[in-house]
Amino acid sequence: MQLEASMREILFVVEEAEDGSFRASAAGAAIHTEAETLEELHREIRDAVVCHFDPGQAPPLNLLHHVRQELLAL
User: CA-CA distance, 42 to 24, in Å (whole number)?
Assistant: First the structure.
């Protein structure tokens, strides 16, 4: 995949699954990955980005936006 001139970063939405693992999906790119720990997820995201783009074309920054759902009873 060719890198657009304006694409300098990829935003990943990170969610924690019910079993405690983590899932990440890129906004605007078909990149998805999951892992048991956040440290492992960071490695998996880097690997997925490198695999998704042609050599030397991956954006230099990956931003992670952690989403957490909570139930607040009144």
Answer: 10
To the question of pTM greater than 0.90 for the whole model, the response is no
Amino acid at position 64, single letter: L
Tell me which residue has tokens 């990955």: 33
Q: Domain 9-67 belongs to what topology?
A: Double Stranded RNA Binding Domain (3.30.160)
C-beta separation of 8 from 53 below 8 A: no
**Contact between 7 and 23 (Cβ < 8 Å):** no
Q: What is the pLDDT of residues 14-64, one digit of tens each?
A: 999 989 999 999 998 999 999 999 999 999 999 999 999 999 888 989 999
